[in-house]
Write a structure and sequence with these properties.
With 559 residues, this protein is α/β, with parallel strands linked by helices. The protein has helices spanning 7-10, 16-43, 48-63, 111-116, 125-130, 136-143, 179-216, 228-231, 241-253, 270-279, 301-306, 323-326, 342-354, 380-385, 391-397, 414-428, 438-446, 452-466, 479-483, 487-491, 497-511, 522-525, 530-539, 544-547, 549-557; strands at 67-73, 79-85, 104-105, 121-124, 148-156, 159-168, 260-263, 289-292, 307-308, 320-321, 331-335, 356-357, 366-367, 371-376, 400-403. Bound molecules: adenosine-5'-triphosphate (ATP).
Length: 559
């Protein structure tokens, strides 16, 4: 009898072919939903534990298995080890040997088979054991009640990196129609676990850096074991307009990550100011890392700054973490930047631009977050003109230029600096701080200080160490004459006329005990109306505290 067709059948919906089509469309939809859900969970996994939870919760049930292991090829390339696996205490052992052990050969007969296959590989344990073609760990799974294993290759960055194993207790646990889905999930897992490995590598590197930073604490040149506060803005002593301008710049630039270029003569306090910027910055709770570029032999620049891997060159017996990596999340102070060899300048520029380094002999780049402060006592713009310094590197460093005036241009800072160093060295050498007479202070203020604050500091340290008197005695050197180049400059130190005028007026006003007007005032001595002298002093930036040494000393005492 002929079968009567319904209108649905007439339209072809209920034929055997259409049933199959609808079923496979539904399966496709379900699989897509599973993939979508899993890929978002895997993408959100931040560490190994998260990934383990995803696999444990989702995979075995989805494919009918009970346990799983995700094994990765070890660094040696010839062995593999479990990376993630079902909690071991949930596997029912029937012998003493643990199932999850490290270091199986990649060519163990099943791992390599899965690696070579684009499709999942199903292994019937009984058959495989009979054929004696499987490694020892398969026997142990068999003893734990497993009858089937489903293996799929995991790739990361386009390379096979491991194999995911699912273990089923019943025969036929794994249905062939889910193999496609299994493969897709393995691909998503590959990306997920690669991110986690990268995170773990970064964390390991950070731990190494911190360990290294802790080890080198205290022996960093120029660090001198000072407290953070000592290295901060409070350690920068001075009240001259020049130093006040510097304080204002420090306050403006410290909170940013901008590169700062400090220029100034030797001993003017570039390092002290670099420390102050760092200490006032959000990175100030980490130690600033310093490199003295003038002290590095040219062939060591790269390994000192970027580090090297063990065996990168003859003599590289250990991995070395370079200064850039040590300075991650903190500040790198590149002192004497003008001394770096031309051939290294391009490499340094690239690192400053890309914000990443590659260790010598290393396999990949390392992203870094480093704030740069550079310093030099050379005129870098002139060095660029002379072809000794790359122009592009100069612009890259000269984002916030800060020029530190020499001590001879900020003599008002001398009294506070003298008091500070006298008290400091007296306490270091266990002595009572000597009295500083006005005469001594004046002679210190009128000296030229070619070596700047460093020279002043050393002179005072020497005086305190050698003196047995209650009054500070100093023996001023004449070294500044040697620093001058021409015959005239050897005879007398040339200073701008305005400085001369300023110093002279100050001297006279001091002699008159700060009096300007009246018969015994400075104006009368200089044969000027007091109003003229006052306006001249204003123009030259002379304020009351500059000529009143006692008040300057009182200020200095208050530090
Ligand atoms: N404003 C300051 N207050 C207190 N001490 C200072 C100040 N400036 C410099 N010093 C002291 O002077 C000495 C030299 O300073 P620093 O090393 O910072 O100078 P520099 O310009 O970096 O020298 P160089 O160019 O030779 O490296 C240090 O002992 C430092 O403590």
């Amino acid at each position: 009898m002929e079968k009567a067709y319904t209108s649905r059948q007439q339209r072809g919906y209920d034929t055997p072919d259409s049933h199959f089509l609808i079923k496979s469309l539904e399966q496709q939809r379900r699989e897509q939903a599973v993939l979508l859900k899993l890929s978002s969970i895997i993408a959100g996994a931040k560490n190994r534990q998260d990934l383990q939870t995803v696999i444990t919760d989702q995979l075995p049930g989805l494919f009918g298995g009970r346990y799983y292991t995700l094994c990765l090829i070890n660094e040696d390339g010839v062995t593999h080890s479990p990376f993630l696996y079902t909690a071991e205490n949930s596997i029912p052992y029937r012998d003493e040997t643990p199932i999850i052990v490290s270091g199986h050969p990649v060519n163990d007969g099943i791992f390599d088979k899965a690696l070579a296959s684009e499709e999942p590989v199903l292994i019937d344990l009984q058959t495989a054991i009979k054929a004696n073609t499987v490694p020892r760990y398969v026997y142990r799974w068999f003893n734990a009640g497993i009858s089937e294993m489903l293996l799929v290759k995991i790739s990361g960055g386009g390379m096979p990196v491991g194999v995911l194993y699912l273990y089923g207790e019943k025969k036929g646990a794994f249905q062939a129609d889910k193999f496609g889905l299994f493969k897709c999930i393995a691909d998503i897992l590959g990306t997920g676990f690669r991110n986690i490995l990268l995170n773990e590598t970064m964390e390991r590197q950070l731990r190494e850096i911190r360990k290294y930073q802790e080890q080198t604490d205290g022996d960093v040149p120029g660090f001198q074991g000072n407290t953070k506060q000592d290295n901060g803005i409070k350690a920068v002593i001075g009240n001259s307009p020049g130093i006040q301008n510097i304080f204002a710049v420090i306050e403006r630039v410290a909170p940013s990550d901008s590169t700062v270029l400090l220029q100034g003569e030797t001993g003017t306090g570039k390092e002290v100011i670099a420390n102050a910027i760092h200490a006032a910055s959000p990175r100030g709770h980490h130690r600033m890392i310093k490199v003295n570029c003038a002290a590095l032999p040219p062939d060591l620049f790269e390994s000192e700054l970027f580090g090297h891997e063990k065996g990168a060159f003859t003599g590289a017996l250990q991995r070395r973490i370079g200064k850039f990596e040590q300075a991650n999340d903190t500040t790198l102070f590149l002192d004497e930047i003008g001394e770096i060899p031309l051939e290294f300048q391009a490499k340094l520029l690239r690192v400053l631009q890309e914000k990443e380094i590659e260790r010598l002999g290393g396999k990949g780049v390392i992203k870094l977050n480093v704030r740069i402060i550079a310093a030099t006592n050379r005129n870098l713009a002139a060095e660029v003109k002379a072809g000794n310094f790359r122009q592009d590197l100069y612009y890259r460093l000269n984002v916030v230029p800060l020029s530190i005036p020499p001590l001879r241009k900020r003599k008002e800072d001398i009294p506070v600096l003298v008091t500070h160093f006298v008290n400091h060295y007296a306490s270091i050498y266990g002595k009572k701080a000597p009295i500083i007479t006005d005469k001594v202070m004046e002679s210190l203020m009128y000296h030229d200080w070619p070596g700047n604050i460093r020279e002043l500091e050393h002179l005072l340290e020497r005086s305190i160490l050698l003196s047995k008197k209650e009054v500070l005695q100093i023996d001023l050197p004449c070294a500044h004459y040697e620093a001058s180049s021409s015959e005239e400059e050897r005879l007398f130190s040339i200073v701008p006329l305005a400085t001369m005028e300023r110093d002279y007026i100050l001297k006279v006003v001091r002699l008159c005990n700060g009096r300007i007007a009246g018969p015994n005032g400075a104006a009368a001595k200089l044969q000027l109306p007091s109003t003229t002298l006052n306006s001249r002093m204003q123009k030259l930036g002379i304020r009351k505290e500059h000529f009143n040494i006692r008040s300057t000393l009182r200020q200095a005492d208050a530090i």
